[in-house]
């Protein structure tokens, strides 16, 4: 059984903001299926009572003091912008609803 | 006169500090070598001739001193360099000039090390062959028709081609060690948190580790000492002194490993390594025994799940880390014709800017983090990570270090593993467990198989980076170094 | 159908999510300043612009403020918790994920007691967590500056990354028709508590406190209904109106046999009702996971205990105490609290003013000015000591009410303390009888007809002459004294 369908890949691509082509969808669906079937092997491990590891260093409470540091200049901040106007980053119209 | 590009970093540093050669001469020799051979090797995405010479001149003026002052270095293009293009080998960052330096770059500059340029890699460090660079592959100096490993193929190839004596790499699943192995160079992944990630363009935050690459173990240790140490800008940076890796390497070079216990992992045996790789590894192991080391077989029963766990954790984190590349604040913007919505433009930008391997991993990661699948995939992978860590911990109760081949196969020809992504993933079979655990590991050349280099991996407990350097230097003293055919 | 009638057939359940921008000097994960109103994109750095390679480091003061809020809301403080990434694409969020908290909030399970009409209602607090704010987007090309119809948008990331505390109540059933008022009273109480901690200026009109209101209806004895979430309700009054309008709207749909859709709705200040926003069925999956770039938060028990011991007096306790001391009504006390004037009046009294005097100036002239300029009372330009000194001058008879206002104007304009303004502007009540007598005699001489009328017993006509004297003395005379003197000179006293 396929772990992942073409439609599912299309949905995930939308969620990931990737305008994949039809050709890519076909190719990815097959490849991702192989990959997912392989990685699904993690499920074979009995690990109900095992705590997950999110960080490999056993550090806690790493903070900075509430003291201002130098920010970028406005020019430096905007230097990489594909489009800017009146010192702001310009973007095309945003769809009415957030997704 | 000596060819300066053939010298080790440690020798170059001595010559510069005694005034026998100038730092500018050393930088020029390497820049000239790059100009002469890099059209064939393609280790560099960007060469900063002016910047390197300026930094070298400052050393010559006596403004900066230090153990590696004046020794030039190549930096993987995933590390930010202020005002110098940084692309992570992706179209989406083509032409981007960061307004800031990574912490490790700051440290290189403070140490007086001229930065020659930025090296090629798999896009966003995702790959094991550098074939996934958006700017074309790097060719292995041992055989230009073969891969130089990845993702840090550019850094490793630059060393093997004598374009640079030192290089910076980053290791998420083996991206320093595996390229080191297939190019006959040395590469170390420090303990996670031992080197700062600030300014390293994130692939998988909980795994990414910058580290040193060189042609000798001592050079690797010298560079390690320059870049390692606590950085308050990286919350996961370890606030502890760095072990004296240089002293450990020099101790190891004396060739005495009496009483050192080397663990070989039972579960790695019969895992599809090429016979030549296995043979070179076994031979080297015997040489270490002659130096006084003891070999102990240990069991790490969860290592077989390391690859699946890694290929869930790394893509999950990358799907989130790479969300910022959206064509709003920097980098490529595609499809903005004045009519399309931002959502369409973002999707077209990411579609045009990312290569196929990056897209595959983003999609897998998005899938693994989805609410319906989280527990079965990402959550389960993190539990497996705990079990792998426990395997390491119990192994290190019995042995001082674990050893294995670095990668199951020598440099393979271009195109032989790109059609089936999972075949490519197997290149990292032996390197990945360490990334999940967080400990240090190093790859040292140990022999040749069919004329191509084989890497020997030494894995140590977290924070015991010095221990792996000692064994690595001892191995180097026993097997010698390996020189690729002339280009 | 009347609101009261609806409540005989439906029971509302409400819930509130409140976001409070902390008043830290720097952002949550970087050292950029948080000054309001700075030039666009001048308080940004690699971290808060999400440049490739940049990494976050948590602001200790923000964690401390969150713990203090949690303690003030009677919450348990987690011994160990993590930040999480909330993944979704939006241009005002530079990383395209929000660094927030998910299933491990810093503070859990507290409550706030809210008093309405003499009855105390306990509102349960589900969680208090720390996260970061987004940038600000300007929509251009549309008719109204709104996103709808805009042709493009402009983004300023100065606000991106400012620490934001989210306070979520448990669902609150059983309030009946009082639900709108209690919702409002809860938000007011929350605001007072947070203000008393000094961790935020909690100004709803400036957006440093923002509310989302959940509302559902069910028939008595039945399960809770489907809830709607009304977004960004930006004043206390709107909280009440938003709940009321949702109750009315939902009851209309249920009465007609319809179903309530789980959706977000937008409250319209002008119309007093809500319109549909995003539907939850199509909502994105946020793919939360523990933030790998930050290490866990594990507050030390001794630290938490010391923060708890140092909490200020609860605003409700304090208000009751001050109300008693000042001798004012609950209503008056409420308006003082609403104006954010409790502390400043207290300080003015401590500086020597009577409670009535202190309250008069801060709630009158100065509150008006603060409102006009949309600034805090404390920023209005007068200090408690100056206001106390002003009131003292009035009490001593050196200033009358009108002069005192003029002096206050001078104080606010930065001309110095009240005494200095008086001296510089030559403002003082003229009590010197000699000078006054001369002015009165002058007025009598200048208005013989009126003087005659008064002598004939038409005392009411005296007002005109008093006015004339006040005019010649430029308001500095005491009207009562003038009147007495005038009648005396005319021999009718
Ligand atoms: Mg929130
Ligand atoms: Zn910042």
UniProtKB/TrEMBL annotation, chain A:
GO molecular function: ATP binding; glutaminyl-tRNA synthase (glutamine-hydrolyzing) activity; transferase activity
UniProt superkingdom: Bacteria
UniProt xrefs under InterPro entries: Asp/Glu-ADT_sf_sub_c, GatC
Pfam families: GatC
One GO process term, biological-process aspect: glutaminyl-tRNAGln biosynthesis via transamidation
Coiled coil residues, start to end: none
PANTHER family in UniProt: GLUTAMYL-TRNA(GLN) AMIDOTRANSFERASE SUBUNIT C, MITOCHONDRIAL (PTHR15004)
Assembly description: Heterotrimer of A, B and C subunits.
Designated name of the protein: Aspartyl/glutamyl-tRNA(Asn/Gln) amidotransferase subunit C
TrEMBL record, chain C:
One Pfam family it belongs to: GatB_Yqey
Enzyme kind, highest EC tier: ligase
Biased composition (Basic and acidic residues): 258-283
PROSITE patterns: GATB (PS01234)
GO biological process: glutaminyl-tRNAGln biosynthesis via transamidation; translation
Single Gene Ontology MF annotation: transferase activity
UniProt keyword list: ATP-binding, Ligase, Nucleotide-binding, Protein biosynthesis, Transferase
Annotated ranges, domain Asn/Gln amidotransferase: 343-490
EC number: 6.3.5.-
Catalytic activity: L-glutamyl-tRNA(Gln) + L-glutamine + ATP + H2O = L-glutaminyl-tRNA(Gln) + L-glutamate + ADP + phosphate + H(+); L-aspartyl-tRNA(Asn) + L-glutamine + ATP + H2O = L-asparaginyl-tRNA(Asn) + L-glutamate + ADP + phosphate + 2 H(+)
Region annotation (Disordered) ranges: 257-283
SUPFAM superfamilies tied to this protein: GatB/YqeY motif, Glutamine synthetase/guanido kinase
Family: Belongs to the GatB/GatE family. GatB subfamily.
Stated role: Allows the formation of correctly charged Asn-tRNA(Asn) or Gln-tRNA(Gln) through the transamidation of misacylated Asp-tRNA(Asn) or Glu-tRNA(Gln) in organisms which lack either or both of asparaginyl-tRNA or glutaminyl-tRNA synthetases. The reaction takes place in the presence of glutamine and ATP through an activated phospho-Asp-tRNA(Asn) or phospho-Glu-tRNA(Gln).
Subunit structure of this chain's protein: Heterotrimer of A, B and C subunits.
Name this protein carries in UniProt: Aspartyl/glutamyl-tRNA(Asn/Gln) amidotransferase subunit B
Phylogenetic placement of the source organism: Bacteria, Bacillati, Actinomycetota, Actinomycetes, Micromonosporales
Encoding gene per record: gatB
